[in-house]
Amino acid sequence: MHLSRIFPVLLLFLPGILLAQGGTPGGRSTTVETLILEPTVLRSTIKAVGTVLADASALLRAEVPGQIIKLHFADGQPVVKGEPLFSIEATVLEAEANEAKANANLSEAAYTRAKELINDKLISATDFDNARANYNVSMARLLSSQARLSKTVIRAPFDGFAGLRKINIGDYATIGQELVSVVSLDPLRVEFSVPETRLAQLQAGQIISVSVGAYPDEVFAGVITAIAPQIDVTGHSVAIRARLPNPDLKLRPGLFAQVSITLAVKTAALMVPEQAIWPIGQTKTVFVIENGKALQKTVTTGQREPGWVEITSGLVAGEELVTAGQMKIFDGAAVKTIPATGIDK
Q1: pTM above the 0.90 mark?
Q2: Superfamily assignment of 91-151 in CATH?
Q3: How far is CA 125 from the centre of its chain?
Q4: Of 34, 67, 13, 3, which is closest to residue 288 (Cα–Cα)?
């Protein structure tokens, strides 16, 4: 073929060849976006979701039937362990207790007299046994009647807060009827699950951070108190329980919780935008700028966060890293740099 025909064809392909080599016609500098690497704090964490629960909660029910004659608390207010919450009409039970006490006194006197007579051999052993048996039966009946009478006053089982009562003065309470719930609000506990692969990294005493939708700008600190001894074979996860102090009483049982467990903290980690990583086969590389030229370096990556990658080897703080424009450059290419845009950590 005549050279006059070949030469125009070569001119058509020459720009493409130059660009494929990363260069630009005339050796002009290529503009790339860069940032200066700075060490940052990197936390290795486990994320989970769970539920805030009361450390102590009880639903009080009527144990004896009767009319509610008095309320000793206000809905939603603090209650102290042992203080009365409801009084149930107790006239019949009081009479039964008084009768049982009178019978117990009589049988006690008879038993005391029998012990004196048996010592003097004035009564038979059978009579003594009967007196002792009558005494024991009457005392049992007295304790039973007193126990039933005590159940006419419903008391707080522990320090906490009363819920919303489910019965009013004048209503007739039946055995087992729900009256009110009592909940302890400080401390609370949070229960959540993590993948079984994380089991070796967890232990009692680790600090957790908890956030809830009710207070999106606040973080609450807790501590792991127990790890379930058995793995959930269905979800391949392990259940965790943590203690959650609540001195300000902001949190409430039942809240959906987002949990974060910090496993380790690196105070001088190098984090780079993930788009700065330029893979070549199985090798990961980046471009840095030295003396106005691009220098390609092989790096080793570590922990990942959304949009960012930790560099464990290959870079040092203070280097100028190319974050955009790698497709236009090559190792040794002359470059012009502008600050990186659209990167927010």
Answers
A1: no
A2: Helix hairpin bin (1.10.287.470)
A3: 68
A4: 34
